[in-house]
Amino acid sequence: MITGHAMVCGVIGNPVGHSLSPLMHNFCGQALGLDYIYVPCHVQDDRVGEAVRGAFALGFTGINVTVPHKQRVMPYLAELDDSAKSIGAVNTLVRCEKGYKGYNTDADGLGRAMKENGMEIGGRRCILLGAGGAAKAAAYLFMREKAESVVILNRSLEKARSLADEMNGKAGRQFMQALPLQQWRQLEGDSYLAVQTTSVGMHPNEGHAVIEDREFYKKISQAADAVYTPARTRFMEYVEEAGGQAVNGLDMLIYQGIAAFELWNPQVKVPDDVIGQVREMMEERLHG
């Protein structure tokens, strides 16, 4: 039941009507008996600073930030968590004394999703497909979890090199290298752990993969696709046809949201059965 003392949180983006976050957060609040409400807020690109100051004045406990505001919001924050500094983007704001502290829960979401599916990063040779925002979160996760090595495959070699150099500098070791997408044959050996972070194959442009050559997928034993619609992407099909294990991005989406929910409600640990119900609801909403 929502009262006059309710904790208010929300999500800002442009657009924001497609967001599944209100469904997830309001269900979790209700399931856990919290006096809590989560609302979507459509914020124009040139009004982000006003939105942050307004939310603080209105008493919002926390805010999720979605595209295209993940970098744009940063100058208006009182503080940044190490994850947000390293990834260079913010997706979660937590109220503090003088404003909001910015976090990035994408790496935590991906890490938990992979771990729940038996994909351990420590000591593994990894492939990272893409070099955009989602790739930065994955690269940070690889660094944090001490992957043995990471090869970034991307259409723009310059962008991939920039990401590799940045993460090598933060890690204090040369564990990440960049290659143009078409030079994947330079990868030595097999049994790689791969994360696919591009939008290739995402609905409505289904039926495509960032690399179409089936020989590439024989090098991969486990893979996570950041795309969650369709439920089974062409990338996943190729991995599985080659005998590997593949998961889509829905668990990453759920767990990054759960991480934000628990930041705002530090006394709460969302139980597995509630997470399972969230997954069922989101699958129903996405795929009918």
Describe the structure in your own words.
With 288 residues, the protein is α/β, with parallel strands linked by helices. Helices cover 38% and strands 21% of the residues. It folds into two domains: 7-104 and 251-287, Rossmann fold (3-Layer(aba) Sandwich), CATH 3.40.50.10860; 108-248, Rossmann fold. The chain is built from ten helices and twelve strands. The strands form two sheets. Strands 2-1-3-5-6-4 form a six-stranded mixed beta sheet, with helices on both faces. It has a six-stranded parallel beta sheet with strand order 9-8-7-10-11-12, with helices on both faces. The radius of gyration is 19 Å and the shape is globular. The model has no long low-confidence stretch (mean pLDDT 97).
Summary, kept brief:
The protein is an alpha/beta fold.
Main beta-sheet strand count, sense and barrel state: 6 strands, mixed
What fraction of residues sit in β-strands?
15-25%
Identify low-pLDDT runs.
none
What is the CATH domain class of the largest domain?
Alpha Beta
Shape: globular
Which whole number gives the mean pLDDT? 97
The beta-strand count equals: 12
Question: How many DSSP H or I helices?
Answer: 10
Radius of gyration: 19 Å
CATH topology annotation of the largest domain: Rossmann fold
H/E order of the elements?
Answer: EHEHEEHEEHEHEHEEHEHEHH
Order of strands across the main sheet? 2-1-3-5-6-4
Name a few traits of the molecule:
single chain, 288 residues, alpha/beta, Rossmann fold, 2 domains, 6-stranded mixed beta sheet, 10 helices, globular
